[in-house]
From TrEMBL:
Keyword Protein biosynthesis: no
Protein name, UniProt field: N-acetyltransferase
Organism name: Kribbella speibonae
Residues passing through the membrane, by range: 80-104
Domain N-acetyltransferase: 1-149
Listed CDD domains: NAT_SF (cd04301)
Lineage: Bacteria, Bacillati, Actinomycetota, Actinomycetes, Propionibacteriales
Keywords: Membrane, Transmembrane, Transmembrane helix
Length: 158
């Protein structure tokens, strides 16, 4: 899935070039974070990845997601972030951290809409949002980690 993303999508998610194919160390960190990782599949193909990992700060979990190009703008990213957020809260997270490129307008709008009380700090081309840990405000159905929608399934990666 990562190899099929545009360079811009990969940069927006990782804030650096990740190479094609991605380095094994990057894949290992995505699948085995200090929190939990989730994948979405369609027809045996991974189309999305979301995760949370413990960040600096007391009980702060960083949330992140990346969705395959053809599956973007369909609500899968927010569904996956909702699953990751719920899991982080269950693990004891009291705050969420999002690190986003200032040029990533879609993600910036999503964070501001879903976590409207988030504070933001700028560091060059990056914006760091901190928000109270809660599920995002949304009207979409949230898929359970073991559940599935018509077009995708989300599974917990140990």
């Amino acid at each position: 899935m990562l190899s099929g993303l545009t360079d811009l999508s990969r940069y927006f998610r990782f804030q650096t070039a990740i190479g094609t194919p991605p380095r094994p160390a990057l894949l290992l960190r995505m699948l085995c974070p200090t929190g939990t990782a989730f994948v979405a599949t369609r027809d045996q193909t991974i189309v999305g990845h979301a995760m949370w990992a413990w960040a600096p700060g007391e009980s702060t979990a960083e949330l992140a997601a990346v969705i395959a190009e053809d599956d973007q703008r369909r609500g899968l990213g927010i569904r996956m972030l909702s699953i990751a957020a719920a899991d982080a809260i269950a693990a004891g997270a009291t705050h969420f951290l999002f690190v986003v490129s200032a040029a990533n307008e879609r993600t910036l709008r999503m964070i501001r809409r879903r976590w409207p009380t988030a504070t933001v700090e700028r560091d060059g081309a990056l914006l760091t949002f901190t928000a109270p840990a809660r599920l995002p405000e949304e009207r979409l159905h949230v898929v359970s980690p073991r559940g599935a929608t018509r077009s995708s399934a989300v599974a917990r990666v140990p």
